[in-house]
Specification:
This protein has about 180 residues and is an all-alpha fold. The chain contains 6 helices and no strands.
């Protein structure tokens, strides 16, 4: 898959996770879905910020402004993810936070539905294929938890991301969370 197809696939997967959350039969099942949502959206956001958004800034005429808006949306999502990450199974706040997150993600997907065609028109297919391979590879080492206070742009993100990822994966292992 090229980079844009991979990002769209991630969006579809998260949409399915929201459906899975609604269909869950117990607090433990819902918590399991929340943990997967936190992990997948944290990885997705980190990789977009590290690899996709810097490219869009360079190649799109209005890239700077558009990406600044996307980063602001990411911050909101990260804060919601952080709140969800701190809850335990059965916490009364989970449903409301998941509903908030779903609205934020639906808006994000809608906004990227405008960004992606512009990016596809501005970047050749080989570059998108190569970026897709890098994104896919990056999923194995991306942070698995939200870090709203970490840098969201290179070069500081390039330095902070791997450290956060190591810390996240250690925490995941110690807490028995799903791993990728």
């Amino acid at each position: 898959m090229d980079a844009l197809e991979l990002l769209s696939h991630d969006h579809r997967m998260v949409e399915q996770l929201f459906r899975d959350y609604q269909a869950s039969a117990s607090d433990a099942q819902r918590r399991g879905v929340v943990e997967i949502v936190v992990r997948e959206l944290s990885k997705h956001a980190a990789l977009e910020e590290l690899m996709v958004y810097p490219l869009a800034r360079k190649v799109l005429p209005d890239g700077q402004q558009e990406i600044d808006e996307h980063l602001a949306e990411h911050m909101s999502v990260k804060k919601t993810l952080l709140a969800l990450d701190g809850l335990s199974a059965g916490d009364d706040r989970t449903d409301a936070l998941m509903a908030d997150l779903q609205r934020e993600i639906e808006h994000h997907v809608q906004e990227e539905g405008v960004l992606m065609p512009k990016l596809r028109a501005a970047v050749d297919e080989q570059a998108l294929q190569e970026l897709g391979a890098e994104l896919d590879k990056g999923k194995q080492t991306a942070p698995t938890r939200p870090h709203p206070h970490a840098p969201d742009e290179p070069p500081l993100l390039t330095l902070a991301g791997p450290v956060a990822a190591i810390y996240d994966r250690l925490r995941d292992r110690l807490q028995g969370r799903p791993q990728t």
